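Appendix B, Record 12. Input sequence as logged:
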Amino acid sequence: MMITGLFLSLARTHADKKMLSLFNGQERTVTHFRDLLNRAGWKLTAVHYDSLSVRRYQKVVAVPA
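Logged structural output:
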C-alpha cells in the first residue's frame, strides 16, 4: 500500500512538471491570478484553499468585471 501511494505521488509530480515545461506554464500566486483576470476583463472575488492537501491547491473564483 505504501509503495502505491509513493508511486502515485511521484506520477502526479511528474505530470505537473511535464505540463509546466511543455506549455511554458508557471505556478501563479493570488496576485498573478488577479492581474491576469483583470487584463482579461474579470474580477477576482474569492480564493479557496484546500486545507486537507499537502500541496495546497487554490480554487480561484472570478466574475466578469
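The CA atoms of residues 44 and 62 lie 4 Å apart.
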